[in-house]
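Section 5.1 Outputs to date
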Amino acid sequence: NNAAEAYRQLSRFAEAEAIYREALRYAELPGAAHEYLPAIYSNLGKLCTDQGRKDEAFEFYRDGVALHERLRLLEDRNFAAMLLNQGELLKDLGRLEEAEVVLLRALQVQRKVLPPGDPDLAIAAVDLVSLRAAQDELTDKEAERVWFELLRVLASAYRGRPHPMLAHALVRLGEALEKSRHYLQTEHAFQEALGMMEAVYGLGHPRTAGALETLGAFYHRHRRDEEALACLELAHRAGEQGGSPGELADILTRLAELLDIPGSRRLDEAEQLALRGVLLKEHEHGVASMATATPLSGLAVVLFHQERVRESEAVTRRCIAIMERDVEKNVELRTS
């Protein structure tokens, strides 16, 4: 388990997964020490999440939660962490009502087992605020309260030391604050998250690429294109060092969008970036996945700006077909 986690931290996902699955096979044997199973499920869930395999990650977290319940390990820090991961994943999958139930349960468990001021309490609160932002339920007052609570925890619990989990929480909080139009605080949160990841891993590390992409995307949304380009080019270089293919695809798609200006000398580069983003998503999720639709739509726009209308239309039709299949699938799930 420790060897696999070391490989995961180095973004050597295939090697980490092979070890985790071998550990899972032994832990599931009759008479084995089943107390190790929850940690293996949790680590496999994290590994799949790192690679954008969210459906698989959810299955591991679901099985891990069920195992905790079967073993009656319900007032346990690891159980709370698994619920938290499951809730975050449900939010990312758009299953917001389920996410809220799971995150509230995680917070209830944490309040029983964690001391006051523990940073994990702030992280759970941030996830709930982010969820309520996605549901259009976030008030300005609530956003400000959680922002200052997180700053207090950062100052006391970690004594100024950076930590990746707190960086993750800051990104979540920044997303919530941006939805509430607190743009200065949003920028501050994203910058703090990037600073933490840089301090822990270094600016050129693939694990820092996501924080660079988040800040660059924020600048792009607010038409600060020079700052956006600087962040996204750094993110691109860091992502090429071995990070998640899905995360690299997101960076490439965002960078292509930024370079895709009619008449620009970098249109050819934008096309290559957009195409590679599509190929990475197809390899990771499949050609008919909704995850592939976003880079496809970006590629269609780039082709249109190059006056390659027929190619653009073909890509657009493919993108629409994926979206229509996804809508049909969701309707079937709701009626079944």
